[in-house]
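> Could you send the Homocysteine S-methyltransferase prediction when you get a chance?

Sure thing. Input:
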Amino acid sequence: MPAPFLLSGHDWVTDGGLETDLIFLKGVDLPEFAAFPLVDDHAGRALLTSYFHDYVAIAEAAGAGVVLETPTWRANPDWAALVGYDAVALDRVNRASVDLVRAAVAGAERAIVSGCVGPRGDGYVASTTEADQAADYHLAQVTSFAAAGVDVVHAMTLSTVAEAVGVVRAARSVGVPVAISFTVETDGRLPDGTPLGEAVGSVDAAAAPDWYGVNCAHPTHVAPAFDGGGWQERVAALRPNASTMTHAELDAMEELDSGDLGLLVSSAASARAALPSVSVVGGCCGTDSRHVAALWGVGGA
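Output:
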């Protein structure tokens, strides 16, 4: 079904910071920050399913639909090779991740299964990959998602226009809806210095996705980007970090900063007021079901 129909007319709960939740709250070792190998383990699948069920419960309490991302932010060739996955194994686990999430949302009244694509490199560092290279690079993963019947492909924590354009081109080539979420520094600019609004406009001009989001940045870091431009109506998803720390500070942290919950809620509300199309709300690094429940004004799971 077309992406506008996926979101139109409804609110959608999405999940929090999967990897930081697993590492800091659940004590799981995630080499290279990769959660997808858990899909290949019985206990890992059970843990992921329990995690996803928390957000299904929040959506039910909020009277909203649920959009859940596959645990595949690191499931691309460069990162996967570091944890022992070749192309065949990677195709299998990407498909299995879609199946796992679809099973987890089976009881939800309204649910979207989103195939999560991460950046080729470090999400906090501007990519040097050109658009055509990015399209070729990400094609294998989006092809796996399409084969598994995913509802939408969502690239998160992207740092450049070029990689975003590449992901959109790859997704369009296999016929699946696609969303792009950029991350920003404390000044509302992408890691390469591009203003968020300019990035949205540039991607729209080259290869428009179905919608945009912003993730892995506190709402107070997104706020400087707001200039009243029409691009703000293209942003449909908000997944903030719990912490007001910079990306460099977060990269160096050895203990979880779960942030100021009241500030997160109030600043996210301010961001939503500036982004009238936002209907998908969840969290990113440092957030868990407690944060996401608070963002929706319901009790925690």
